[in-house]
């Protein structure tokens, strides 16, 4: 059973996306972040990865998730390099997710649904140069109270209709692999988990 997940991420929207994926997988694990700004840099250093791993071991985490942005880079190569900076002993419990190009772009995988949810027009989000900033501003505007921006993104991911989420998985290889790797980690620990891959890519 996975009870604690160590997470290394860049910003509030990234953390919210992780929370949303956790909830969609029907996982109740606590997400634990290392102290200090370990994950805010785009590429994790070997020194910070070692510090984070030492902290996670003390916290007794069952899984470690590193989540970062591709920002125009090749996501497979970025994932490989991110994994390489961790100590070898972390490899068996490490999942690396790389958003193409960032989690806001993943939210945009169904453009009409996101525009409606954020109270924007599809035209406002069509231009890729301004899209991410406009999504971020809309999320900041809509975030309120104790929920905060991370909570808002988590709710958006969690409450996205099943058919929309499956379109996300079908549309983006990086997201599909990240979701699949999270499921595999849960299955290894005998966790009962949802599976929204079947209808998206025909897996058993």
Description:
It is a single chain. The chain is α/β, with parallel strands linked by helices. 55% of the residues lie in helices and 10% in strands. It has a four-stranded parallel beta sheet, with helices on both faces. Helix 1 (12-24) packs parallel to helix 8 and helix 9 (162-171) crosses helix 10.
| Average residue pLDDT | 93
Distance between the termini: 23 Å
Element order, helices and strands?
A: EHEHEHEHHHHHHHH
The parts where pLDDT drops under 50 for at least 5 residues are: none
Radius of gyration: 16 Å
Task: Strand order, main sheet: write it out.
Answer: 2-1-3-4
Largest sheet: 4 strands, parallel
Q: Give helix % range.
A: 40-55%
Strand content: 5-15%
Shape: globular
Class per helix and strand makeup: alpha/beta
Number of E-type strands: 4
With helices defined by DSSP (H or I, 4 residues minimum), what is the helix count?
A: 11
């Amino acid at each position: 059973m996975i009870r604690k997940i160590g997470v290394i991420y860049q910003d509030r929207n990234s953390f919210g996306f992780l929370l949303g994926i956790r909830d969609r997988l029907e996982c109740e694990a606590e997400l634990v972040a290392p102290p200090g700004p370990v994950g805010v840099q785009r590429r994790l250093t070997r020194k910070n990865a070692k510090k984070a791993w030492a902290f996670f071991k003390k916290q007794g985490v069952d899984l470690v998730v590193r989540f970062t942005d591709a920002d125009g880079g090749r996501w497979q190569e970025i994932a490989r390099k991110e994994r390489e900076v961790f100590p070898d002993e972390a490899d068996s419990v490490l999942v690396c997710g790389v958003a193409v190009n960032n989690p806001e772009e993943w939210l945009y995988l169904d453009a009409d649904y996101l525009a409606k949810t954020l109270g924007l027009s599809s035209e406002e989000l069509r231009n890729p140069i301004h899209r991410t900033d406009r999504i971020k501003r809309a999320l900041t505007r809509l975030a309120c109270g104790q929920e905060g921006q991370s909570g808002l993104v988590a709710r958006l991911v969690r409450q996205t209709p099943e058919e929309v989420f499956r379109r996300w998985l079908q549309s983006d290889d990086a997201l599909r692999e990240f979701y699949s790797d999270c499921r595999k980690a849960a299955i290894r620990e005998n966790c009962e988990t949802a599976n929204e891959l079947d209808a998206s890519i025909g897996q058993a």
